[in-house]
Amino acid sequence: MPNQSASTYPKAVLFDLLTALLDSWTLWNRVAGSEAAGRAWRAEYLRLTYHSGAYVPYEELVRQAALQVGLNESAARTLDAQWLQLAPWSGARDTLRRLVPHCKLAIVTNCSERLGKQAAELFDIDWDVIVTAESAGFYKPDPRPYQRALDRLEVSAHDAAFVAGSSYDMFGTARLGLRTYWHNRVHLPLVEGAQAPEVEAPTFDALLPWLRDFGLSKEDSAQ
Residue 102's closest CA among 26, 19, 215? Predict the structure, then answer.
């Protein structure tokens, strides 16, 4: 069990997987044939999943996104075949290892059970909880995937933090009162209407200091 007696870490940290922890952009760009095509495809996929609500097969949304930006639907099959070529962002593995002694770690990801578990296993971490859109029955930013993870962790939103990869997440985390760090590695714009995160940074460098002071800053905000 994590020992929090000498720290102010949250009881649990939840992570977006495919954008916050993994560099999915490079793989999508390579499959699409160029950075411009890959970014357009990935952006359309993000739009579709975050506006989907109730779960529909992830692989179908990836295929639809490819077609809508002018790619052949075979791109979706190639992406699936090359899924395990996803690479962690620099600093991701070290950050997770350093958090292990202090708090529970969970994933909340917008994909299928099969692909979510495969991607999670790219990290040498014994995840406490993995929640996919398929297992929750809903895509983020519907609050139910985040809440499902919190319930399984037996931790309240007040005692947890979320690490987002896209500002779409902030619609869901704001509804739950889940404090959020946006790891914005590719400098995405804040989606219109989304609540700004507590911290936005292009690397993980500020994450551990923010989490170490989590309890103190929470007390300050309550005063």
Answer: 215
